[in-house]
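About this split. The held-out portion is used to measure sequence recovery: a designer receives only the structure tokens and must propose an amino acid at every position. Recovery is the fraction of positions where the proposal matches the reference. Here is one held-out target exactly as it appears in the evaluation file.
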């Protein structure tokens, strides 16, 4: 899949496209389709870790996170470091509805996401 090169997540020398992860996560029960953002954060030794922020429709949050993690791991061969479920309507988008990965990453790094607790 094509994507903006600055959004590519590099894990173990492999390019992982956030759009692919977002599609897989958005197809899971309990996740609001089109309201998922994936991005990379720096981990140890320069490798990036995958973070997934998804709006939840409600339900067993622990089970939703487990399903999303399993689906991404199966599809990409790499498990996300973290799957964060947030309140509906809180995934940052532009006025035209495009996902804002950099804004989501900044909110994650500043611990400002509207995280749903188990």
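Reference sequence for scoring:
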């Amino acid at each position: 899949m094509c994507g903006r090169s600055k959004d590519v997540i590099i894990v173990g020398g492999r390019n992982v496209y956030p759009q692919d992860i977002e599609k897989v996560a958005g197809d899971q029960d309990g996740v609001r389709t089109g309201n998922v953002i994936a991005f990379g954060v720096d981990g140890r030794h320069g490798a990036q870790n995958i973070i997934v922020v998804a709006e939840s429709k409600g339900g067993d949050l622990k089970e939703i996170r487990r399903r999303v993690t399993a689906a991404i791991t199966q599809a990409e061969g790499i498990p996300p470091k973290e799957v964060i479920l947030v309140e509906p309507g809180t995934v940052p988008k532009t006025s035209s509805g495009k996902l804002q990965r950099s804004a989501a990453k900044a909110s994650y790094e500043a611990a400002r996401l509207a995280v749903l607790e188990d």
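Annotator remark: Helices lie at 18-26, 61-76, 101-109.
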